[in-house]
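In response to reviewer comment 3 from the previous cycle, which asked for concrete evidence that the modeling workflow produces usable outputs, we include below a single protein chain processed end to end. The sequence was submitted unchanged, and the resulting structure tokens are shown without manual editing.
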Amino acid sequence: MRVFIAGIGNKYMGDDGFGPKVVEELLSEEIPSGVEVRDVGLCGITLAPELADYDMVIFVDAVNMDSKPGTIYCKKIERGDELKGEKGDAFSFLSIHETSLKELISFAAAIGTLPKEVFVIGCEVKEVLLREGLSEEVERGVKEAIDLILGLLKRYCERE
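The workflow returned the following structure tokens.
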């Protein structure tokens, strides 16, 4: 099984650097073969064609749900979810960027490159402002996100 873990965000904008930080920390873990881990920054829909090379993708990103900072969310995106856009749907919490993760996933589905298994791991932000480093709350969420990712890899990579 080919798996892509994509850390989305800008490490120079405070808590928006959650995705890149998780990727940085994850690279020191033992990762199964066939798993690519990469900081994709703010690539937007330009990443969509590359997704065709994978059976599973895990997007890691900062989110804003007006919840407690540092709260970790894990959502499996089911087929058809990428076409929805109403408040409260699968995408109601995805991404805080100009080009949202929803747009990337929807575009990849439209061009036929969206992998069979798609997960989003998000962390509630405290502050997004021009500075390097995460708030204490979001920093604490990094370990929980890594544990979730390693659990997903164990569950999905071992069944193949």
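DSSP finds three helices and five strands in the chain. We consider this sufficient to address the reviewer's concern, and the full set will be provided in the supplementary archive.
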